[in-house]
Amino acid sequence: MDVTIRPFRENDAEALAALTEASIRDIGSRAYTPEQIAAWVAPHPVPERFRSRARAGSEYFLAVDAADRPLAFALLEPDGHLDMLYCHPDHAGRGLALQVLAAAERHARAARLTRLYTEASELARPVFAKAGYVLLRRRDFTIGPKDAPVPIHNYAMEKRLD
Questions:
Q1: Which class for 2: exposed (0-12), middle (13-18), buried (19 or more C-beta within 10 A)?
Q2: Distance (Å, whole) CA 65 – CA 32
Q3: Residue 1 pLDDT exceeds 80
Q4: What's the pLDDT at 48?
Q5: Separation in Å, CA 153 to CA 54, 83, 139
Q6: What would the pLDDT profile of 13-64 be if each residue is shown by its tens digit?
Q7: What is the pLDDT of residue 162?
Q8: pLDDT value of position 43
Q9: Per residue in 67-102, pLDDT tens?
Q10: Nearest Cα to 60, choosing from 84, 37, 36, 41?
Q11: I want to staple 23 with a disulfide (CB 3.0 to 4.6 A). Which of 85, 86, 139, 153 is the partner?
C-alpha cells in the first residue's frame, strides 16, 4: 500500500474524529473494558476539537493512502508531548504508527526539542517502545463523569532526543 505522511488540513477533522473513535472502540477493546472504552471515547468524536488543537499550535502527522484518506496519525504538542497516536483498525499492525511517530520525531528535532513524552495505552505501549521510548511508570487514574468515574490506566513514557 502506498502511504504518504503529511500535515493536518482543516478538512481532515471529521476523518480523524471517526478514525479515533474506531480505533478506541476496536483496538482499545482488546485491553480495556466496555466501561473504560465508553469513557475514553466520549470526548473524541468532535471534529472541532481536532481543528482547535491545530490552531493552538499542535502538529498532526497523518499517514494517508493514495486517495488521501487518513489511516493513522499522531498529535505533537509544542512542548514535545505526544498526546495522540491512533491507527484505523483496518490498517493496524502495518507500521503506520511507527511512520507517524518518526515524522513527529523529525519535526521535534528540527524544533530543537530534547524530549518527547506520552501517556501510552496498553496497546500503544509496545509501539512506543519499538520507537525508542522508555517506560517511566504505570499511571492509574479515573476518567468519565465526576459522578461515575471509571478507573483506567496508561503508561508514562519518554524518548530523549539529545
A1: exposed
A2: 29
A3: no
A4: 94
A5: 27, 15, 5
A6: 999 999 999 999 999 999 999 999 999 998 877 899 999 999 999 999 999 9
A7: 84
A8: 82
A9: 999 999 999 999 999 999 999 999 999 999 999 999
A10: 84
A11: 86
CA separation for the pair 156, 76 (Å, rounded)? 15
Q: Is 10 exposed, middle or buried (0-12, 13-18, 19+ CB in 10 A)?
A: exposed
39-69 exposure pattern, b = at least 16 Cβ within 10 A, e = fewer: bbbeebeebeebbebbeeebbbbbbbeeeee
Say if residue 144 is exposed, middle or buried (CB neighbours under 10 Å; 0-12, 13-18, 19+).
middle
- The answer to whether 160 and 109 are in contact (CB under 8 A) is no
Q: Which grid cell sits at 134?
A: 522508555
